[in-house]
Write a structure and sequence with these properties.
By secondary structure, the protein is an alpha+beta fold. The chain has helices spanning about 10-35, 40-55, 130-135, 140-160, 175-190, 210-250, 260-275, and strands at about 10, 60, 65-70, 75-80, 85, 95-100, 100-105, 110, 120-130, 195-210. The chain has three domains: about 10-95, no CATH class; about 100-210, Band 7 domain (Tetrahydropterin Synthase, Chain A), CATH 3.30.479; about 215-275. A hairpin with a 2-residue loop joins strand 3 (about 65-70) and strand 4 (about 75-80).
């Protein structure tokens, strides 16, 4: 496995000045040699001028948050990350690699969650290249590699959890947003580590049931909400009834036998748990008539 290393580059401004001076001197001497009809000097001046012009191709510009990967006849020589004008061997090839932070938003993937329900899911991945040697030489196209592996990790994560949890404490794609985001980032990072890429953040941006079951699952969610609300209402009503009976007994307002308590509990629960306004009926008699 190739490990990133710094390439040895020379100051481009200094080399530009030296090459310009050599080129001007060579042209001046070439003119004099032609006038003197000195064949040997003419050949030497042409050779020096040709080398100087060729060395100008060794100048390379490195922009901020950009690196140049340097190769000489297929051999990796290093990477230049420091911005500025540099000069390297003109026979080398220099590939530009961006070190800027980039983001990738996946397409809406249709997968089955842990319960087998078809869902649509998409995510955004924020990433950057941290090892130029691995990014260039370990994979064929590191940008395409990021896209494919991110979607593969997202699919794998979606199949491990249900869309919605039916018990308290269980993780789900909809409710455990932060935990799911951390797991998604870790899984994508594990897949992209070999490509010299660091995943900064990964979050789900779209989550919905597939269209063919969306209406049915909506009714299911509404029913679950109604049941949960009713449970809270019943718990509160039982507490209020218990408090009312305790206060009546403690203050000796009225003595109630078991049958009267049962009737009072029944009436209070009907009033407290009903989703409509109560319409009381006055009983002029007694419970025993």
């Amino acid at each position: 496995m190739l490990v990133e290393k710094d390439a040895k580059g020379f100051s481009g401004w200094l080399m530009s000045f030296l090459l310009a001076a050599v080129s001007i001197s060579s042209v001046t001497l070439l003119v004099k040699a032609i006038q003197a009809e000195n064949t040997a000097m003419i050949l030497v001046c042409i050779a020096v001028l040709g080398v100087a012009i060729g060395c100008f191709f060794g100048l390379t510009v490195v922009n901020p948050n950009t690196a140049k990967v340097v190769q000489l006849f297929g051999t990796y020589k290093g990477s230049i990350k420091e911005q500025g004008l540099w000069w390297v061997n003109p026979l080398t090839t220099r590939r530009r690699v961006s070190l800027r932070i980039r983001n990738f938003e996946s397409s809406k993937l249709k997968v089955n969650d842990q319960d087998g329900n078809p869902i649509e899911i998409a995510a955004v991945v924020v990433w950057k290249v941290v090892d130029t040697a691995e990014a260039v030489f370990q994979v064929d196209d590191y940008e395409h590699f990021v896209h494919v592996q991110s979607e593969a990790a997202l699919r794998n994560l979606a199949t491990r959890y249900p869309y919605d949890s039916h018990r308290d404490g269980d993780m789900s794609l909809r409710m455990s947003v932060l935990d799911i985001a951390h797991q998604l980032r870790d899984e994508i990072q594990e897949r992209l580590a070999k490509a010299g890429v660091e995943v900064i953040e990964a979050r789900i941006t779209h989550l919905a049931y597939a269209s063919e079951i969306a209406s049915a699952m909506l009714r299911r969610q509404q029913a679950s909400a109604v049941i949960a609300a009713r449970q809270k209402i019943v718990e509160g009503a039982v507490g209020m009834v218990e408090m009312a009976l305790d206060l009546l007994s403690a203050k000796h307002v009225v003595e109630l036998d078991e049958e009267r308590k049962a009737s009072m509990v029944s009436n209070l629960l009907v009033v407290l748990c009903s989703d409509r306004d109560a319409q009381p009926i006055v009983n002029a008699g007694t419970l025993y008539q």
